[in-house]
Write a structure and sequence with these properties.
- The longest helix is centred in the middle third of the chain and has 35 residues.
- The protein folds into two domains: 30 residues, no CATH class; 69 residues.
- Helices cover 69% and strands 0% of the residues.
- It starts with a helix and ends with a helix.
- By secondary structure, it is mostly helical.
Length: 113
């Protein structure tokens, strides 16, 4: 017998509590009562920052690899140098994308000075 999520949550109060706790990371400890209205705004901000990072990385990857292909076909870059540049850019993009997506309040204050 299969149960939908709504039915399962009705039957098991601890499952409902687990669902609500999934959003607890975006509720400040001092504002437990009104914190749930902030969660959708935080998630929206997080998703917009992630999409901006993905689009920026994609544009760089396409432009850089297109230039490597063009220079390789034109005979300007030998294949070994082109491969080295490609792999180095891949590592660089990977390292850049592992940085914090959203700055915390302390970092924002330091950058504002």
């Amino acid at each position: 017998m299969a149960l939908s999520d709504a039915e399962a949550l009705k039957m098991d109060r601890s499952a409902a509590a687990d669902v609500l706790c999934g959003c607890a990371f975006c509720i400040p400890a001092t504002a437990q009562t009104d914190g749930f209205d902030r969660c959708p705004r935080f998630l929206r901000k997080l998703s917009e920052a992630l999409m901006a990072r993905i689009h920026g990385s994609y544009r760089f990857i396409v432009a850089f690899n297109l230039s490597l292909i063009t220079l390789g076909v034109a005979g300007v870059l030998p294949p070994a140098i082109s491969a080295l540049l490609h792999n180095t850019s891949t590592l660089g993009i990977g390292l850049k994308n592992m940085t914090d997506l959203l700055e915390d309040e302390n970092t924002q204050k330091r950058n504002a000075r």
